[in-house]
Design goal:
With 244 residues, this protein is an alpha/beta fold. It is 44% helix and 17% strand. It is an enzyme of class 1 (oxidoreductase).
């Protein structure tokens, strides 16, 4: 079956996917620092993972990405056949409008670092699935969160091209496009229409992986796809006043 690598081991969705995909295989949880994953470590062991390892990983240190993937495979003792790129930050839109360093940090973590890691995974892995997370926020940038939205727009475009590159190989890319995700990253924020929780996103991705199909893009929930097309039709004078 091969090893499962979660890049963003403390993320809500990454943890939910690990719980669904860990049975009878080694798991590597990679995150910035190895703290805060003890409970998930125990849950995965109890759920049937053959071994659970933690690995310190800083997404902003892009020069270390290939080494991180190689060390993960060494820890697992098997080739990685499922890799989940679940790290990211929401950032502060208001701050990013005036603080170029913060705007750069959002772009680095949510776009550039993900492009780097996905490129490494596509080069190193020979078969299985890579999972990346786009968002409805990238479908049409809104005034209220255009910095974060722009990173998701760029990442989504990259993923569509990467999926085409992998077509016909034994490696597939699952690109998830969820709506507003109610979780630790969005605590205190008002949920948007068609919001989902991390378990719903993870379940949809896990089903896509277990189906054995090739690369595909998932709207989560499916009704979000219709909303997305409607969003494209809203005139800009109205659109610029849309909330996050």
């Amino acid at each position: 079956m091969g090893a499962l690598l979660i890049l963003g081991g403390r993320s809500d969705i990454g943890g939910e996917l690990a719980r669904r995909l860990c049975h009878d295989r080694p798991v590597v949880l990679a995150a910035r620092g190895e703290h805060g994953m003890e409970e998930l470590h125990k849950e995965l062991s109890d759920a049937g993972a053959t071994a659970v390892h933690t690995l310190s990983f800083d997404a902003t240190e892009v020069e270390s990405h290939r080494d991180v993937v190689e060390r993960a495979a060494q820890l697992a003792g098997e080739s990685i056949t499922t890799a989940v790129v679940a790290f990211g930050i929401l950032g502060d839109q208001e701050r990013a409008e005036h603080d170029e360093a913060h705007a750069f940090d959002i772009a680095l973590v949510d776009y550039a670092a993900q492009v780097s890691m996905l490129t490494v995974l596509a080069d190193v892995m020979r078969s299985g699935h890579i999972v990346a997370f786009s968002s409805i926020a990238g479908w049409r940038a809104r005034r209220a969160n255009y910095v974060y939205g722009s990173t998701k727009a760029g990442l989504d475009a990259f993923c569509q091209g990467l999926a085409d590159r992998l077509h016909g190989t034994d490696l597939a890319l699952i690109t998830a496009r969820p709506g507003f995700v109610i979780g630790s990253m969005t605590t205190g924020m008002k949920p948007a229409p068609l919001s989902v929780t991390p378990d719903v996103v993870a379940e949809a991705v896990a089903r896509a992986i277990e189906s054995g199909s090739g690369s595909r893009t998932l709207w989560i929930p499916r009704a979000l796809q219709l909303l997305a097309w409607i969003m494209k039709l809203v005139p800009r004078p109205i659109w610029r006043h849309m909330p996050r």
